[in-house]
Amino acid sequence: MLMKAAILRAPDEAAEYGDFAEPVVSVGHDLVTLVAAGIHPIVRSLAAGRHYGATSGWPIIPGVDAVARTADGRLVFTGYIDAPYGTLAERMAVPSTMQLPLPAGASPVAIAGGLNPGLASWMPLTARAAELGSLGIVLILGATGMAGLLAVQNARVLGVAAVIGVGRDPDGLARAAAAGARTVVFTGDREADAVTLASALQGAAPSLVLDFVWGAPAETAFRALERHGLDEDSADIAYVQIGAVAGPEAAVPASLLRSRRIRLVGSGAGSASIADLMRQMPIFMRLIAEGQIDVPTRTFPLSRVADAWEASAQSGSRVVIVPD
Ligand SMILES: NC(=O)c1ccc[n+]([C@@H]2O[C@H](COP(=O)([O-])OP(=O)(O)OC[C@H]3O[C@@H](n4cnc5c(N)ncnc54)[C@H](OP(=O)(O)O)[C@@H]3O)[C@@H](O)[C@H]2O)c1
């Protein structure tokens, strides 16, 4: 038996619409049908074999998560299935333990588009707010992307004192500003960018840095965060590495680690607690359902996945696949 699906035949090829073998439903799994699935950066990097989570060969069906309909008609947020299967397909066999009911009135497209980029910041923001009692200044590197835009909104929902959003794209910076961030443009001139960021911080230290880009912009931020003098630092900075679109590595100055009270950690599949995620996902879905978090999306039917794949390379709104 065959079903329609998006298929990637080799790394770095685009996804195409075609026939793929129906998934086999093993013990502890249920067959569900596609309602909406986002093409997130992780979907593209796993499919290209560039993400640390990539495990299988090709051909594969891409897609990590989805809103799907169960055999008894319920809408659930689900996914996380073993390759070569993915969520950009008519049907998928999903773990019974990973099916979260959608809140009443929630748009499946907004949930499918928003959970991956939104939880990327919701998890570290809620953890930090619990640790400190309240959030001070939150600095976002990559505020121009979808994860950055939702991070600005999440920080506002959690009552942040101020959000500083850094990026390159003027349209993306305008979206971040409209969502409530003070924006900083990185031009690529590291010296000048570090000075601009330091002056935007006005001598204060962020309680949390959410870094979606890493690479050169992270090195610029390290320079802006460094301090001079031998007195004890009164700040307490948690720097969370989340994405690496600007480069897989960034050199961390020894003087930054010694001059500041700063903690550098990562957040992603592997380091994040599944139990915490399962607790926070229904809360975050409710925020989207209530319209407190706005997720810009563009939808494409599964049969137009080739066009959708191309469109998903641009940020600005999340591409979501829906059934034909
Ligand atoms: N660890 C997790 O849990 C988790 C969850 C979700 C996302 N992520 C990761 O976070 C990253 C961003 O995701 P997204 O959904 O926001 O993607 P997106 O909507 O496609 O946005 C891409 C972002 O990356 C920036 N960017 C791209 N190339 C850059 C470069 N060379 N230098 C500086 N900035 C660059 C863009 O900035 P400009 O437009 O200003 O150039 C934009 O802000 C991805 O790596 C994604 O995999 C991680």
Task: Note down, in words, how this protein is organized.
With 324 residues, the protein is an alpha/beta fold. The protein is 32% helix and 24% strand. It has nine helices and 15 strands. The strands form three sheets. Strands 3, 4, 5, 6, 7, 14 and 15 form a seven-stranded mixed sheet that branches. The chain has a six-stranded parallel sheet with strand order 10-9-8-11-12-13, with helices on both faces. Strands 1-2 form a two-stranded antiparallel sheet. Strand 1 and strand 2 form a beta hairpin. Helix 2 packs across helix 8 and helix 5 packs across helix 6. The longest helix is centred in the middle third of the chain and has 25 residues. It is elongated. 43% of the residues are buried. The model has no long low-confidence stretch (mean pLDDT 96). It binds NADP nicotinamide-adenine-dinucleotide phosphate. The site of NADP nicotinamide-adenine-dinucleotide phosphate has 27 residues, from helix 1, helix 2 and helix 3. NADP nicotinamide-adenine-dinucleotide phosphate binds next to helix 1, helix 2 and helix 3.
Unreliable runs: none
Number of strands: 15
pLDDT averaged residue by residue: 96
Ions, cofactors, ligands: which are bound? NADP nicotinamide-adenine-dinucleotide phosphate
Strand residue percentage: 15-25%
Number of helices: 9
Helix content: 25-40%
In whole angstroms, the N-to-C terminal distance is 19 Å
Q: Any key phrases for this structure?
A:
324 residues; alpha/beta; seven-stranded mixed β-sheet; six-stranded parallel β-sheet; 15 strands; binds NADP nicotinamide-adenine-dinucleotide phosphate
